[in-house]
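Box 3.1. Reading complex inputs
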Amino acid sequence: MDALLEMLQKDARLSTSQLAERSGKSEAEIVQMLADAVEAGTILGFHAVVDPDKVERHSVSALIEVKLTPERDGGFDRLAQRIAKFDQVTSCFLMSGGYDLTVIVEGSDLRDVARFVSEKLSTIEGVLSTATHFQLKVYKQSGFLASDHTPDERLSVSP
Amino acid sequence: MRPLEDRIAKQVKGLPRSGIRDFFELVQGRDDVISLGVGEPDFSAPWHIREAAIFSLEKGNTSYTSNLGLLSLRESISGYVEGLFKVHYNPESEILVTVGVSEALDLVCRALLNPGDEVIYHEPCYVSYSPSVAMAYGVPVAVRTRVEDEFVLKAEDIAEKITDKTRLLLLNFPTNPTGAVEPLDELEKIAKLAIEHDLIVVSDEIYCELLYGGESGMEPGEHVSIASLPGMRERTVLLHGFSKAFAMTGFRLGYACAPPVLTEAMMKIHQYSMLCAPIISQTAAIEALENGAGEVEKMRRAYARRRNLMLKRFKEMGVPCFSPGGAFYMFPDIRKFGLSSKDFAVRLLEEENVAVVPGSAFGEAGEGSVRACYATSYEKLETALDRIADFVSRLQ
């Protein structure tokens, strides 16, 4: 399973027959393993990793540090899940350290993100404070370097 | 003035031109060639290793090191070797850090051979074995390994070549160019032979981390070094390095592990000819040994997947190809096409723009096969194999 996930995390476009060939398993086994992984929630989804700097209609992304009041039952879970459900939120993690949640938010422009923070996020009961950091430039995203074109300079034939 | 050609030393003049070089010149200048002719990983050295080299430069580490190499590196090597080969070498006196295994091989030949001494090695093999022996005024004696035996080296074939002049036995498992791995029972017979005839064994184990075990070939195999067999440590010079498993070919770093007297003799030559291996490479190597295992295993798995692809596709094409246990080479048998390995490789290059190395470049025993290296991206391999399939279908 680990080998399968490793291959998919690098390239989710690989077909089941390609995955079968590369892992030495049968295609039927691969189909079953994938179905199981999706069913179990091990694989959450498949998407293209886009460099926002290369996209014509530039969206804005921000990392927001959120402090919460934990609840008697369930700690941070209920509030975190509630925040994560907003479409603007692309990622949401519970953190150790000086604040509780890291929330990554995407909007069409600065004002769009600011509006989400002031009108939605900070007004939720239990949210104590927010600190918003706007993203300026992407160097690496989801394991992919934004500019990584090292030419192959090996000799074409060598001992 | 005497012509310059006449000034070249006899033993250098006598060296054959490398078949690899001939073929390299043919490939140069062609566009769109997919080369399966390389002998090194397609991966760059893992970033944490490169970063350690940069950091070492930033700190101003630009000096010579001890002739044997940095003690901290030798200590790391000692621990690594003990884990991998199950043999302990004292970092103070039994490990010499060299400029690649190539230098170590040269040192061992120069340190242990008197003119006319014979060295037995197995063919097909890495191109520098026979020249290294000849340059040390030794006499290289080749033992054939055969495709029918999956290129296993037979102790009985070695026995036939042993004379009263034989001093060294030079082994390389997993083997470049065949990918062959020596089975334990045969290795034990070879060890017995070495003890019986009082030979020193030089064992180049540069590919030993790249093994493909289990039924799927995906599991890491278990490497057995001849140095770990009973009675062998005291008569073995173990050669290893960083080029293949850690993808550090350009760092040029290897090492020799041997009893103190042999290490001292090799060190004498090394100190006058090389002084020491580059300190940047040595610092990078410490990082490789301390924190590199995860990356090595990742690369090994990538090679394993490609190896499975090659095996499957050669089988579909009807090209006989044994399943190699290690390294990153396939050595398919092309005899049924009625072409020499060179003609096969030249036509494949000219007609399909795929470069493989003629087996004859690795010694006479390599004739009848070609070496196809799978240290190339999976996608490129798929394209190369499609082209090879077209080519062989026209030959059939």
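In summary: The first helix of chain B runs from residue 10 to 13.
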